[in-house]
Each structure stands twice: as structure tokens, then as C-alpha cells.
Amino acid sequence: MAVKLKSIGIMSSLGAALGQGTKKHKELLVILLPLLSDSKKHVQTQVLGAVNVWIEHVTIRPLLLGEDLVAASADKNPNLRTCLFSWIVEQLKTAKVPPKLPKELNLLVPGLYMSLEDRNSEVGAEILYHR
């Protein structure tokens, strides 16, 4: 656990240190997504904090256009999907997203449906009632 948290901290520090240079290394951002599958809230919070540091400089657009977000949204782990979709909702509400969302965002729909139909009631409820 300590190694995981230290790694997340390093990724966050790296994103902050690189600043605008993160755009050249945006593929590193997707390394953090699978870590959202951890059931511990403090780990998920730290992962999202690191992702947000990178998003400040890269913007959310490359993540929306990539296949990694689609793969993460279709993952069978309910913790990952719950955390990921909640984060996406917040990003779409607050981040600098272009007025016209990319058509690749449609690729998240199957994962969203899978989450709404999940036997784990927390997954669907988090998505439906996220404000």
C-alpha cells in the first residue's frame, strides 16, 4: 500500500513539476486510471488528485479522445467505474471542455449502461444521483 501511495504522489508531483510540459507526456496520465479500482477512499482521492494535477495542464480532451478512458469505463471493477464516472461528471461540469464534446465520448455509453445495470447498487446510484 505504501508503495502505491508513494507512486501516486510521485505522479502528482511530476505533473506539477512539468507544468505545461505535461502535454508532451500526456500518455502517462492513463497509468493512474486503473488505480481507481482500489476500494479505499483515501487511495481513490489521492489518485483523482494526481489526475486533476495533470488535467490542469493537459486538459481533459486528450483523455476523452483516448481509448484508455473507454477501457476503464468498461472495467468490471465497480469501484473503478463508480469513481471514474463521478469524476467525469465533475470534469464536464467544471473543466475547460470545448462547447462541442468529441464524438468519442459516445464510446463511454456501453460502460455507462453496464454501470447502471450493475448488481452493486452503489455503482448505479452514484451515477444516477451524482449532483
Explained architecture:
The chain has helices at 2-18, 41-58, 61-65, 67-73, 78-94, 109-116, 121-128. The protein is mainly α. The longest helix is centred in the middle third of the chain and has 18 residues, at 41-58. It is globular and about 40 Å long. The protein starts with a helix and ends with a helix. The mean pLDDT is 79.
Provide the descriptors you would attach to this structure in a database record:
131 residues; mainly alpha; 61% helix
Count the DSSP helices. Answer: 7
Q: Radius of gyration, Cα only, in angstroms?
A: 14 Å
CA-CA gap between termini: 31 Å
- How would you state the average pLDDT, rounded? 79
Tally of DSSP β-strands:
0
What proportion strand?
under 5%
Q: Helix-strand pattern, N to C?
A: HHHHHHH
Could you name the ranges where pLDDT drops below 50 across 5 or more consecutive residues?
A: none
Shape: globular
Write the layout of secondary structure elements.
Layout: H1 2-18, H2 41-58, H3 61-65, H4 67-73, H5 78-94, H6 109-116, H7 121-128
Helix pairs in contact: 1-2, 4-6, 5-7
Entry summary:
The chain has 131 residues and is mainly alpha-helical. 61% of the residues lie in helices and 0% in strands.
